[in-house]
Amino acid sequence: MTSSLISSANATLALAVPVLTMLIAASVALIAFYQWKTNREKLRLDLYQRRFEIYLRVLDFHFAIWQKDEPKLNLLHVQFMKAFWESKFLFREKSGIYDFLDDYNLRTSRVRVYRSQIPPRSDLTPEERAQLIKDEIWIKDCIGILEEKLSPYLNFHSI
After folding, report:
1. Is the per-residue pLDDT at 116 higher than 80?
2. Three-state secondary-structure class, residue 96
3. What percent of the chain lies above the pLDDT cut of 70?
4. Model pTM greater than 0.70?
5. How far apart are CA 31 and CA 115, in angstroms?
6. How many domains would you assign to the chain?
7. Which terminus of the chain is more solvent-facing, meaning fewer CB atoms within 10 Å of its CB: N or C?
8. Which is nearest to 62 in space by CA: 145, 124, 5?
9. How many helices and strands (H and E) does the chain possess?
């Protein structure tokens, strides 16, 4: 009777080991899958936050330009430049965001130089005055264009 009990236990053990091995392997695979999914979502969130931070830096700089507060503007220009250079790595080249920010930087720099070096603006040539007006109008209207270019990257559901 003990030998039949031992052989029955051995048979049960022989069946249980592969079943338990498969259950453990399935559990490990399920945990790995959820870790991968969590990491993918974290990457999406991190990219979103970095891209949104670029947008906020551009907005801060944009509003400071119209306030004409030079000390604040100098600080925000440094932050804008960091965002501008970072944009090259966070957005696809075909998005045109880096090129747009490059154009934005050029125009805002030109306007700041005109404002700082020629206070009454009376020394401007007609061409310089026309360029200044064109740049100021472009800068004023550019946030909508920037938002349009950024919208595929800042729509969290489609990232």
Report:
1. no
2. coil
3. 93
4. yes
5. 60
6. 1
7. N
8. 145
9. 4, 0
CB 76 within 8 A of CB 60: yes
In sequence order, the 6+-apart residues with CB closer than 8 A to the CB of 48 are 153, 154, 156, 159
Full domain range(s) for residue 12: 2-158
* Residue 152 backbone dihedrals phi, psi, to 5 degrees: -65, -25
Instruction: Output the CA–CA distances (angstroms, integers) from residue 73 to 36, 116, 126, 137, 143, in the order listed.
Output: 43, 12, 27, 19, 17
**The two three-digit tokens of residue 41, written as one number:** 């979502």
Q: Nearest CA to 50 among 123, 157, 154?
A: 154
Buried-exposed string 1-12: b where 16+ CB fall within 10 A, e elsewhere = eeeeeeeeeeee
Question: d(Cα 91, Cα 82) in Å, to the nearest integer?
Answer: 14
Nearest to 65, CA basis, from 104, 11, 21, 16 = 104
In this prediction, residue 122 carries a pLDDT of: 62
- Give the pLDDT confidence score for residue 34 in this predicted structure: 94
In sequence order, what are the residues at sequence separation of 6 or more whose Cβ sits closer than 8 angstroms to the Cβ of residue 91? Answer: 51, 97, 98, 153
Q: Which of 151, 54, 48 is nearest to 105 (CA)?
A: 54
State percent of the chain over pLDDT 90: 50
Predicted local distance difference test score (pLDDT) of residue 33: 95
